[in-house]
Amino acid sequence: MKYHINISDDYYDYYDYDNLNDTLDYSVHDMICIKEEVRSFNQSFLPTFYSIVFLVGVAGNFLVVAIYAYFKKRKTKTDIYILNLAIADLLLLFTLPFWAGNAVHGWVFGISLCKITAAIYAMNFSASMQFLACISIDRYYATIQPQSHPITRSTRKLCSFVWMVAFLLCIPELIFRTVTYFHGRYVCLSIFPTNWGKMVKITTDSLEMALNFVLPLLIILICYSAIARILLKSPRAKKSQPLKVLAAVVIAFILTQLPYNIMKFWKTMHMILHLIQDCRIIKNTDVALQVSETLALFHSCLNPILFFFMGASFKMHIINIAKHYGCWKRQGSMVTEEIPMDCEDPAEQTSSFTI
């Protein structure tokens, strides 16, 4: 089977996770468009932004995992979704140092890590978006049926289904990712068979946009709109803070994910219809796609902040840990036992994502 990648002295695409698979002759203009400015931009922009997202996101999501996996003994359905979301975000964030190094020095980690890192990135980006949708569905049912929601077999099945779908979306990375050498450095990219590579790329991009953005967005909008209507109709509900939180969740998702998916859709349409004919527009599109993708990654940093304001129990755990840590520091004692959460009442134990 013949494989092909566009490698010439005049052109190759910038180093990034999603768009290094230029095995497709999008247009003659693509082939003669020199993209040195795009590569220079990525070499300075990606390491800086990835470092910030990595440090902030790992700290916040590690705290979420520690609280839900260790400190919080009674777990609800929402707790399980939040825990899985934090794990997905952590695994996604752990790939960023590799991509930062790839932008500056090229890929120096070998073919196996190239495939694994790209697959982990794709799988956990997808899982993160889908678990956000699961949380919104769970919050809707918690609003119309305000009682404890214990973990059931269906909860575990849904989590397993989300991870399975995410894994299926990353299979093309495991198959087609490889390391090749050109323009003085090794790069980690996808190389597709010439005869059907374009169809594979268009199909995978379309599935990713549908399952990672369109479907979660629809679910989030429908569920949180329904919750907002219920709150507005309830005469005794405290409406101001919950409505602000709902708006923050929706706005954060749209602001971080919409620009990337618009650019990805535009790039996919360009593959099909050759819409872009000007070299300057092609380069600006590449830069915009890279910036919007890094912005989409920033949602991994926002999730722990949203949990803090949305979860009464989660917030209480953090406050108690801080209080107990202060006591330990003043007393100078080495405490190894589990932190007691005495100030949490039974109601809070059963609703860690309270609206």
SSE layout and pairings?
Elements: H1 28-32, H2 36-71, H3 77-93, H4 96-105, H5 110-144, H6 153-176, E1 177-182, E2 185-190, H7 197-233, H8 240-273, H9 279-297, H10 299-310, H11 312-331, H12 346-349
Antiparallel strand pairs: 1-2
Helix pairs in contact: 2-3, 2-4, 2-9, 2-10, 3-5, 3-10, 5-6, 5-7, 7-8, 8-9, 8-10, 10-11
Protein name: Atypical chemokine receptor 4
Transmembrane segments: 49-71, 80-100, 106-137, 158-176, 209-231, 243-262, 295-314
GO molecular function: C-C chemokine binding; C-C chemokine receptor activity; scavenger receptor activity
Beta content comes to under 5%
Tell the overall outline.
globular
Overall average pLDDT: 78
- Number of DSSP helical runs: 12
Largest sheet report: 2 strands, antiparallel
Radius of gyration: 23 Å
Summarize the amount of helix as a percent range: over 70%
SS-based class: mainly alpha
Report the span from N to C terminus: 56 Å
**Element pattern in H and E:** HHHHHHEEHHHHHH
Q: What is the spatial order of strands in the main beta sheet? A: 1-2
Number of beta strands: 2
Sequence stretches where pLDDT stays below 50 over 5 or more residues: 2-31, 333-353
